[in-house]
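Tutorial, part two.
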Amino acid sequence: MPFRPLHDRVLVRRIESDSKTAGGIIIPDTAQEKPMEGEVLAVGPGARTDKGDVVAPSVKVGDRVLFAKYAGTEVKMDGEDRVIVKESDILGIIDGAASQKKAA
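Running the prediction step on this input gives:
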């Protein structure tokens, strides 16, 4: 399903966190919090200033980002849950080296 966000909106797919603690305890799905980390799937053209100029977004497709806990609107696309957030709700971009280190 092709989707193009408008203005400064960003389409994000949540990245699931581990269901096990460092000590080996398994956390049930009902006790887990929703992850605040995700991968950018689509980005709008950017916000407009008062003069009508378009400010390009700081994120791009493929970036791993951290976003506010209760940010955005959850939607279901192609059978998967997605989140549409404003760029201002994105707290930061996770660098590639840091995300690979976490996976190891």
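DSSP finds one helix and eight strands in the chain. In part three we will examine how such features are distributed along the chain.
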